[in-house]
């Protein structure tokens, strides 16, 4: 069974970390409605969605993906580069442990965000960013290499928040990549579908069994995915975009 853990929107989400403050503040009521649609979308993909309560003292807690990297039965808690986000892992650790996931806890202060980790089968592509260091990628490798996984580090373009801001998986062998960000050669052996740089926000998708959740407002990106034979459902993500978040950010997923 595919499982997705989501975390409710904090009442303090307007104070979430952002690289560039939005012109308009986060509309909390609208964010909550968009989150409800997201949960419905995840169920449409076939996930058993499990909900973690929000912590109103943690503005970014809805972006639960960053707090851990998980596979069936195993996982690693991450070390967020932003100290204000580190308490988010407390509730996540409790919930995942209760679900029978054996969690590795890094002993070093090596930053690693889940948004920088893209799993393709037995390979983890790890983006090196302001949020994830080479030492953080090495900690991931130490946790998963004994289980038969390998790690490929990917240098990200300057100003790219996370790896999954520019590339995500549509299937086990197909990736969606924003033009002008990373060379397709990085993903040798995989089928790469490109979308325009101007619509790069739409490169962040959640997909399962031929169905794909995409952000609304990016028609060329949606058309490219549909031409490849996938069934698309678009979701309004405006309030999460204001907080530098997108679709994958809102869940921890077990396939």
Please tell me the CATH architecture by its name.
Answer: 5-stranded Propeller
Element order, helices and strands? EHEEEHEEEHEEEEEEHEHE
- Distance separating the two termini: 7 Å
Instruction: Look at the structure and name the CATH superfamily.
Output: L-arginine/glycine Amidinotransferase, Chain A
Number of extended strands: 15
Please tell me the total number of domains. 1
Strand composition percent: 25-35%
Structural class: alpha/beta
At the first level of CATH, the class is Alpha Beta
Tell me, briefly, the overall form. Answer: globular
Going across the biggest sheet, name each strand in turn: 2-1-15
Short structural summary:
This protein is of the alpha/beta class. The radius of gyration is 17 Å and the shape is globular. The protein starts with a strand and ends with a strand.
Question: What does this 3D model show about the protein?
Answer:
Helix content is 20%, strand content 26%. With 255 residues, the chain is an alpha/beta fold. The protein has a single domain, classed as L-arginine/glycine Amidinotransferase, Chain A. The strands form 5 sheets. The chain has a 3-stranded mixed beta sheet with strand order 2-1-15, with helices on both faces. A 3-stranded mixed beta sheet has the order 3-4-5, sandwiched between helices. Strand 1, helix 1 and strand 2 form a beta-alpha-beta unit. The longest helix has 17 residues. The protein starts with a strand and ends with a strand. The relative contact order is 0.18.
